Amino acid sequence: MSDGNIRVLVADDHGAIRAGLMMILGNAEGIEVVGEAADGAIAVRQAKALKPDVVLMDVRMPGVDGIAATRELTAEGLCEVLVLTTFDLDEYVHAALRAGAAGFLLKSVEASRLIEAVKLVAAGEGVLAPQVTRKLIAAFAAGTREPSAVPAGLEDLTEREREVLACLGGGLSNAQIGTRLHIGETTVKTHVSRVLTKLGLRSRVQAAILAQENGVVLEG
């Protein structure tokens, strides 16, 4: 982050929406909008050139869509991606999160919540719109999604790392994980990083989904 500011790139194919998002974020303390893009291909090129901390990514865009662009950006570790869309359909949620997005918000989100989400994602946290969270939890509770194959890395986790994974599955922030496990936040970040590496995941939100799918849940 330059000068302590979070560098943000806004990608949306609708000019008016893009301008509005840029105005909201551009007026927020601690955030600097460094660029914009009207489709996924431009977003990837701009991200490589401008090196933002966070890309605010629309899903439906002409040419390369937001899901494909997110997958490319996260695979190369270029930045964090916060998906923002009008749609809250399951296929978009799961596709975005499996592509490595750090968060998913609806375009109806309030300005203050959007600013907060950008700051959380830049700090390494995961963000899901309440509506999306409820849908994911309901889907898992109802058993409507087929569980994925248990990743080999799951068996390689230490007891502490498994506890951290369970906390991620419960939607806890780093600070909340630290409080629950009685460890420092820096140590939490280290454990989260190791969990993601061992499981071959790109984001803590992917880890949360994996934890839910494989029954790694908080006890008590």
Automatic annotation (TrEMBL):
It holds the Pfam family Response_reg. PANTHER family: TRANSCRIPTIONAL REGULATORY PROTEIN NARL-RELATED, TWO-COMPONENT RESPONSE REGULATOR. Residues 150-215 form the HTH luxR-type domain. InterPro entries: CheY-like_superfamily, NreC/VraR/RcsB-like_REC, Sig_transdc_resp-reg_C-effctor, Sig_transdc_resp-reg_receiver, Tscrpt_reg_LuxR_C, WalR-like. Keywords: DNA-binding, Phosphoprotein, Transcription, Transcription regulation. It comes from Amycolatopsis keratiniphila. One of its GO terms (molecular function) is DNA binding. This is LuxR family transcriptional regulator. SUPFAM superfamilies: C-terminal effector domain of the bipartite response regulators, CheY-like. It comes from the Bacteria. The modification 4-aspartylphosphate is found at residue 58. The lineage of its organism: Bacteria, Bacillati, Actinomycetota, Actinomycetes, Pseudonocardiales. Residues 7-122 form the Response regulatory domain. GO terms for biological process: phosphorelay signal transduction system; regulation of DNA-templated transcription.
